[in-house]
Write a structure and sequence with these properties.
By secondary structure, the chain is of the alpha/beta class. Helix content is 41%, strand content 17%.
């Protein structure tokens, strides 16, 4: 039985990867941070399983990483933990650098200090944001990097320190350059989930409209559940190499928005340009989508488009197992159900208050 250690196991990718590895027969360990708020809803269904274990550790604390790596002595490490929100990196650049840059170094050093350089394979979750102010499209493993945010700059250090440890110490460590990947488990502050949740709430009368940033931004969106398979395949490869993980297809935020509202039962029509562009309900003429300057970044990446040829050829990975339309439909379906449950809960609570007032229930 192989043993895997996943940092960031409570996140979207970490939870899907944990499920995938358990199905493969792995002994799965994950690191979590101490918090007074429960943030483990994505992995709650796994807790209590015999081959699933959690440990307290933090990428900002080298001693905690040394302790966990030394105790678990994993065959594979998947470093998925990060401050992963681009906009937040402008507000918290120092924290982002400590976790996303130096944190990678701490993981590599923990493996080296524990004497596991020849037995432990390491996957580093890199990002398409490395390409930033893109110099060519689509982007592949040889495309020059031009990071365009504190997040991307920090991740670039992580990418290069992995290469350095691979060459200096002969370690099997690789980076997967992940393009945007979404799912029903995506955080609500990310634009795709913000859109699908808003579409569900608007369709069910719980929200008036949604405010977004640059509707013309182009992204390569895939399904996170498919992408974790590629992470695993990278570590099963004969030699340590870096791979672009993408679909090879490109869509705008506007297109994602139209499709999400379509699956929620609303047909959108966009009119205007730039900050004046609005999305109208074709049936009622009501404005449901507006652009706000608050969601524009100081430096904005507008044209990310990955070339997954190497992963397809060398690893046999299928990047479009789940199509773009299927991805959006899955997300909207999940959020429609989630909002319906919220509404039912509110209805029950309202009725209970009414019954208490009338003395029907004591």
């Amino acid at each position: 039985m192989k043993t895997a250690l996943i940092t960031g196991i409570t996140g979207q990718d970490g939870s899907y990867l944990a499920e995938f590895l358990l199905e493969k027969g792995y002994n799965v360990h994950g690191t979590i941070r101490r918090s007074s708020v429960d943030y483990r809803e994505r992995i709650a269904h796994l807790e209590g399983l015999p081959y699933f274990h959690l440990h307290y550790a933090d990428l900002g604390d080298s001693m905690s990483l040394l302790q966990v790596v030394g105790k678990v002595r994993p065959d594979e490490i998947y470093n998925l933990a990060a401050q992963s929100h681009v906009q937040v990196s402008f507000d918290s650049p120092e924290f982002t650098a400590d976790v996303d840059a130096t944190g990678v170094l701490r993981v590599l050093e923990a493996v080296r200090q524990c004497g596991l350089t020849k037995t432990c394979r390491i996957y580093q979750a890199s990002t398409s944001e490395l390409y930033g102010k893109v110099e060519e499209v689509p982007q592949n493993e040889d495309t020059p990097f031009h990071p365009y945010s504190p997040y991307a700059v920090a991740k670039l250090y992580g990418y290069w320190i992995v290469k350095e440890y691979r060459e200096a110490y002969g370690m099997f460590c690789c980076s997967g350059i992940l393009f945007n990947h979404e799912s029903e488990r995506r955080g609500e502050t990310f634009v795709t989930r913000k859109i699908t949740l808003a579409a569900a709430r608007i369709a069910q009368g719980k929200q008036e409209k949604v405010y977004l940033g640059n509707l013309s931004s182009l992204r390569d969106w895939g399904y996170a559940k498919d992408y974790v398979m590629c992470m695993w395949l990278i570590l099963q490869n004969d030699k340590p190499e870096d791979f672009v993980i993408a679909t090879g297809e490109q869509h705008s935020v506007r297109e994602f928005c139209q499709l999400a509202f379509h699956y929620a039962g609303i047909e959108l029509e966009f009119k205007g340009e730039g900050l004046d562009e609005k999305g109208y309900d074709k049936a009622t003429g009501k404005v449901l989508v507006e652009v706000s300057e608050d969601f524009y970044r100081p430096t904005d990446v507008v044209n990310l488009w990955g070339d997954p040829t190497k992963a397809k050829t060398h690893l046999g990975w299928n990047p479009t197992k789940t199509t773009f339309k299927e991805l959006v439909k899955l997300m909207v379906k999940a959020d429609m159900a989630r909002v319906a449950v919220e509404r039912a809960g509110e209805h029950i609570y309202t009725n209970l208050e009414e019954y208490l007032e009338k003395g029907i229930v004591k």
